[in-house]
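Lecture notes, unit on protein representations.

Consider one protein chain, 190 amino acids long.
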Amino acid sequence: MKDQARVLGIDDGPFVKGMQRTPLAGVLVCPPGYVEGVMVSSCQVDGEDANQAIIRMVRDSRFSEQVRMVMLDGAALGGFNVVDVRALSQDLGVPVLTISRDRPDMDAIRSALMAHFPDWERRFEAISQNQVRPVQVPDGLVFVTSEGVEEREADAMVRRCTIRGCLPEPVRLAHLVATALVRGESRGRA
């Protein structure tokens, strides 16, 4: 991937029981940390529109031609509104990565999906279709899945975008913006 390739980090805002929708924030970064732009959208809490919300966010933006990679904070937005990273990568024509601070507990995810969703198998398949792997960054490990790019290249971009802490800047900044959209200011581990 070229040195000046722009990476779009996406995260959802916090939500409480009873909320129908949660905001999504997208921050476009020229690595390692120069912010090119910010985008916002929303998705249903525990819904099925995460892919469509991301696609609309990107395609309706004046930055759409600049996005060369998407990094998501986890494989689901708005609770269990699961992102099908394979389909998203194909639809946008760019690599898609998921980034997590902790190794996903697939047994716990499966149990939660089984308990709450009649279509749990479809959601679980989308979450588990890509192999989770640890990636060493300066301050520890993050857990990454990737689609549409070789693992070596994806891991190199994760490291390149990580300035301090464990999260790549596009994801870290998206978290700050999404939190501020809901709470009026950013807070939490970012």
